[in-house]
Amino acid sequence: MALRILPFRQYSDHDVVNLYSILDGDVNDATTDSGAGDAGVWVSVTSGNFDADPITYQTNSYLGKTDYPFVGTTEMYPEVNLRVTGAISGMHPLGVTLYQTAKNDENGEKLLYNPQKALESQALLPGQAVPILTKGIVTLAQAAFEGPVTQGCYTPGSGICMSHTTAGKITGVHRGRRRVGHEYPFGHVLGTGTRSNVGITTDQFSGDYLVVSFDCS
Q: What is the largest CA-CA distance in the chain?
């Protein structure tokens, strides 16, 4: 599932940046996939040139057939030029993505042709600006952080910083430590828990979770 961030969250809309899209190579193929296009990925800026046009039209096969006679160009797909990708250790992230970016729904149908389905799936199309939360309280599913919540580095009050092994994920910092190597924590753990299925209904967010407070500003 492409949602690493759970429903419980507290934040102000003033702390959400709506300027950047994710790199084309980070886009998930479907909303059922899990990858760099997930919601709940911690990102950093790779292209921040505000002198460039905010949106340009590109040649993108996702649009379908564009090489019609007499049209004169195949550059018909609008994309936001400012870009982000998953942050890695040593980086101070811009924030965490609140929506996923994906091409298709769970049935392999293009979300391009079904904007209502995209809205219901909390999904954006390739090239669209993804909302990035820079400050607040969020609940993160297991796919958003390294290791189980039973690790000592995830006790309440512990710090969080970028993972040393996987771009876009965070890891805990043992309570009392103010820095790890050359990086400083940008938030802390408020609590941990585990979700489990109840009855015959499958809980898409089942597993360990963290509640973290952070400030990337």
A: 67
